[in-house]
Design a protein that fits this description.
The protein has 13 helices and eight strands. The protein is mostly helical and 374 residues long. It folds into three domains: 76 residues, no CATH class; 117 residues, DNA polymerase, domain 1 (Orthogonal Bundle); 115 residues, hpI Integrase, Chain A (Orthogonal Bundle). It starts with a strand and ends in a 6-residue tail after the last helix.
């Protein structure tokens, strides 16, 4: 039993008189939270008195009902009986996996994000399942289907890449359990990822300039640095970049990629280097990107608002600046291997598969270089 948040809705999970797990939604807001807490307490009190007592009806809760909202009333997944001593639950295994990440060099912010995802997305569904008794067909197929069929935080259907990423996280937790001997099976074994539809990036240099004209100063500066250095946006690279990583004498930026745990050196254009010298004199946090003297943990909202004000109607994200960084250089004849190094790819094939297909006319230009035989 317990109250938890799912995509902004307050939920309560409990087991009914038959032992079947139920998840009940109370909507959004403070009133919904009060209802959820009251319902959870009533269920807990009933269980203490007698496990056979029927569950309290929601109309006995004094808190006023929230306005009707579209919600998922119950999560109906196959329930399995959990017996003491049967083995480690997913919740317990996930907790040990997070502890493992903390001592393995994973950044604190990444660990916190994963912990929140586990608590809000995974544990409410499979947290109390004993891992050694779980199977791919009975447990993981319904788990994946649930995320494919329900909306995410933005009240929109989750994309296939998001669903695949959830599966990857859970698979990593199961693999950790098997490798360390905490569990004996990986219920995700046998899973085949659904093919992801390639994303059509429409952002142009002219549109980047339009967005920057309508962006807040710190967002505009973040966009310029991201595009000029080809960094991954967010705290993995762009927002983690410090002035200590900038060598003004050599005109280079030393970028640490937390994704690959490697450093790469990116030359800085004279124009950007001059702006960096000016910005550094006003900096208070030690970070290249800051707001009101403090480092920034997220910039998506500010970027999205700038896009709206600029009248950009097609889907666009900060990561598209990195994409544009690569395709612009390649279209102007830059060496593929050099671009790959600037992006921080360990293999040129990664650069080719992700970016080269976007260059229209390259195959025609290559064929035109052949000499005439007649």
């Amino acid at each position: 039993m317990g109250v938890y948040d799912r995509d902004g809705r307050w939920m309560v999970f409990y087991h009914d008189e038959t032992g079947k797990r139920r998840d009940k939604s109370f909507g959004r807001g403070e009133e919904a939270y009060a209802q959820a807490e009251a319902f959870n307490k009533a269920v807990s009190d009933a269980k203490k008195l007698c496990t056979a007592l029927p569950l309290p009806p929601t109309d006995l809760i004094s808190s006023p009902a929230p306005a009707p909202v579209k919600m998922i009333e119950e999560i109906t997944l196959p329930e399995k009986t959990i017996q003491s001593g049967q083995g480690m639950t997913f919740r317990e295994l996930a907790g040990k996996y997070l502890a493992h990440l903390k001592v393995s060099g994973r950044t604190e912010n990444n660990t916190k994000k994963l912990a929140k995802m586990i608590d809000n997305q995974f544990n409410p569904i499979i947290g109390d399942r004993v891992v050694n008794s779980m199977t791919y067909i009975d447990d993981m197929v319904p788990f994946i289907q649930f995320f494919q069929e329900t909306n995410g935080k933005q009240n929109r259907p989750r994309s296939q890449p998001t669903v695949n990423r959830y599966g990857d996280y859970v698979n990593a937790i199961f693999n950790f359990g098997v490798t360390t001997g905490l569990t004996t099976v990986n219920p995700m074994k046998g899973r085949k990822k659904s093919r992801e539809k390639p994303r059509d990036v429409q952002l142009t240099v002219d549109d980047v300039k339009r967005i920057m004209d309508h962006a807040e100063p710190h967002v505009r500066w973040a966009m310029e640095v991201c595009f000029s250095l080809g960094t991954r946006p967010g705290e993995s690279e762009l927002l983690a970049l410090k002035w200590d990583h900038i060598d003004f004498d050599k005109g280079i930026a030393k970028i640490y990629a937390s994704k690959t745990r490697t450093y790469r050196v990116v030359p800085i254009s004279p124009t950007l280097l001059g702006k960096m010298k000016e910005v550094k004199t006003e900096s208070q946090s030690g970070y290249v990107i800051e707001w009101r003297g403090q480092p920034i943990g997220m910039i998506r909202k500010g970027f999205r608002r700038a896009c709206e004000r600029a009248g950009i109607t097609y889907p666009v994200r900060m990561y598209d600046l990195r994409h544009l960084f690569a395709t612009t250089m390649l279209s102007k004849g830059a060496d593929l291997a050099a671009v790959s190094k600037l992006l921080g790819h360990s293999m040129i094939s990664t650069t080719t598969s992700h970016y080269y297909h976007c260059l229209e006319g390259e195959k025609e230009r290559a064929v035109s270089l052949l000499p005439e035989l007649m």
